Amino acid sequence: MIKIGKYVAIVSSVFLITILTVKSQEATQEKSTSPKSFKELFTEAGYHLEIQNYHLALPPYLILDSIDPGNANLAYRIGLCYLNSDNNKDKAIPFLEEAVKQTAKGYDDLAPTERNAPLKTYYALASAYHLTYQIDSAISTFKKYQSLLHSKHFMQESVSRQIEMCVYAKLQMSSPINVDIINLGETINSEYSDFCPIINADETILIFTSRREGGTSSKTDIDGRFFEDIYISYQDMGSWSNAVGIGTTINTMDHDAAVGLSADGQRMFIYKDDDGDGNIYQSYLVGDTWTVPEILSNSINSPGWETHASVSSDGNILYFVSDREGGYGGRDIYRCKKLPNGEWAKAENLGDKINTADDEDAPYIHPNGTLLFFSSLGHNSMGGYDIFFSELLEDDTWIDPMNIGYPINTTHDDIFYIPSSDGKRAYYSSIDTSGYGEHDIHMAVFKDYEEIAVTVLKGIMLVTDIEGVSMDANITVYDNSDMDSPPKIFKPNSITGKYIIVLAPDRDYTIFYSVEDSILQTEHIFIPEESAYQEIERTIGLKPFELSGFTFNDPSPPEESIPPVKAEVHEDEKVKETADSYTSKGVAPYQRFFNYNIKTIDRSAKKYQDFLTSASIIIRKNGTLNIFIVGSASRVPTQKYGSNQTLALKRAESAKETLLTSFKELKIETENIHIEMKGLVQGPEYEDAAANNRLLFEKFQYVELRVN
């Protein structure tokens, strides 16, 4: 079970043992139909109070208060129950204000006859003021309590920390961030606790955890609340669908909590209590069904308690929380990197820039791979957990965490926070006294925000044959800016064909769309360093019989390029590129695949002629033309050219000569045509075992022409 509240211990463990003994004795006796005595009600309420079932302790205490008004001990206990409620913390204040009028150092917390309140009532009252934003009253009451304690009392440090948080709360509230906070409404929220929202990169999927009635299990936990289940909603045309249970492969008769989601929404991380051990599991979306969760390796799960997890957009780094030995505090944030064999490496603590002597929780690594959002008790906080963010620098160090600000952060515990890919919005859960339930899920819309430079490549890809049978579809992404990095393979959904891939700025990518080991299409995408957030949409598909042109045995794969695209700038300033569009200039790149050692372009090919025509229109209109040529070679050894790099450059040079000749034939002066060339050597190393797999190398043997 995910713990979402902060509890205050108020009764000794000796009292719990006494209560349990009394209740055991009562169970052996015949039940009485007569009203319960004062002592019986006090014992019953005290039992619930000790195990932190405050909502069950409250009713008998209220009955006792009506029997014995003016009892400071009862007022204190009623105040504690309200203080630890979700939406009624303000009701604690009048009871605690009454209780502090009659405190005693010799307070006996076991005696039903005790009518005084303990000195720590001041602490509870100050906390109530703090939580209800009566900050000055909170500070003065904390100081009053501090003055009543011995200078070396163990509570002195805690009280000083609470005063620090009150002072910081005043500072944050004096300069709130410019944000609109929107409750996601009754399609998402219920009268119960709804929390821990997680989204995919394009915000079309929202998954969250709820303790609502009607879940997989009808039973309630020891706290009287329903067990946690996972729910899912889909966004279409700006509206969220009615949330439904995510399915019986995920939701069980026990607690199930969703804590992380991959960028494409097809890999989910789940927290399970496992009899108090606390472990992280993962499940994959296969078509429209989630697989049965499998526990993660012991690089991540330990004998300690692991809670939240967040995976990088490329799937290669997992951030998670653990209270294992060797950390800086109670719960710390760790990360694991994926090894070449697909296993997770040894966990690394993120260090003392992120982790403190207190607890950290709920990490979320942004799709850009450098922004980390998390909750902490230890950094500058307004009260309880606050949400912070830090950035990973190129030297693998973190900047000092910054508080996300008020009113996102409050004087309550603020834990679950997920920003959108563009940074304009964020989803989080919080207590909302005017909302639907105990915790509601909200969306924050930032009016002043710095757009995060991320490119989201998304769309639909053909994944079924003519009979509707799913085929093995892959999208392989090569980062040409880092030739030492292995390719990243993404899989579209096996039924819908939907895919989402996040591309970083200042990178040059080659992307292959393939089905059953046959390439459907390929493209080159360059993301400038100073690019803004953008979404590029692609629809990738061919009729099944057309796939025959892409088999291993074909001597030369046919020319294929992504259809031309038209950039559409929408009101939200995102750039969407549709299936009939490619660049803002509307010119489709020309791409030609080659067999071994071949470097010449077929000038009569229709797609070459289309490229030539479009480029000619631009230079005649503007007077200048910028063209970028990429020549690419595989790693198959070449004796003819000496090296693959030479072959790649020869392909680019040959394409340049062909292009200039074509322009001259069209009576176009070439002095104002600026051509930049680049040679790439790509793909796997050539080995005997792969020698017969020509497709493995042919997809890296090409030339591409682009208008910049």
What does this protein structure show overall?
With about 700 residues, the chain is α+β, with helices and mostly antiparallel strands. It has four domains: about 15-175, Alpha Horseshoe (Serine Threonine Protein Phosphatase 5, Tetratricopeptide repeat); about 185-440, Neuraminidase (6 Propeller), CATH 2.120.10; about 455-585, Immunoglobulin-like (Sandwich); about 595-708, 60s Ribosomal Protein L30, Chain: A. Strands 2, 3, 4, 5 and 6 form a five-stranded antiparallel beta sheet that branches. Strands 7, 8, 9, 10 and 11 form a five-stranded antiparallel beta sheet that branches. Strands 1-22-21-20 form a four-stranded antiparallel beta sheet, with no helix packed on it. A hairpin with a 6-residue loop joins strand 8 and strand 9 (about 280-285). Helix 1 (about 15-25) crosses helix 2 (about 40-50), helix 4 (about 70-85) runs parallel beside helix 6 and helix 5 runs antiparallel to helix 6. The longest helix has 22 residues, at about 645-665. It starts with 12 loop residues before the first helix and ends with a strand.
